[in-house]
């Protein structure tokens, strides 16, 4: 089973969260956009799979915070 967990690398603000309407993301697809010091940081999926968004737009996150999880294609993302 392949999983991917997106994490923040710095203290940043969430500009675009993982889409709640798109339940499946594909490798290389944009998952979330973060902003810090007027620089945007795009995080893309490393695997195909069902997504569980953890953060909302406007949220402030710290380095290491989980932003989204992607589980196996067609399955619910793990907790």
Describe the structure.
The chain has 79 residues and is an all-beta fold. Helices cover 0% and strands 46% of the residues. The chain is built from no helices and 8 strands. The strands form 2 sheets. A 4-stranded antiparallel β-sheet has the order 1-8-6-3, with no helix packed on it. The radius of gyration is 12 Å and the shape is elongated. 27% of the residues are buried. The mean pLDDT is 76.
Q: Which keywords apply here?
A:
79 residues, mainly beta, four-stranded antiparallel beta sheet
Query: What letter string, H or E per element, gives the SSE order?
Result: EEEEEEEE
Ranges where pLDDT stays below 50 over 5 or more residues in a row are none
Mean pLDDT: 76
Task: Please bin the fraction of helical residues.
Answer: under 10%
Which oligomeric state applies?
single chain
Task: Please indicate the percent range of residues in DSSP E strands (runs of 2 or more).
Answer: over 45%
Characterize the main sheet: 4 strands, antiparallel
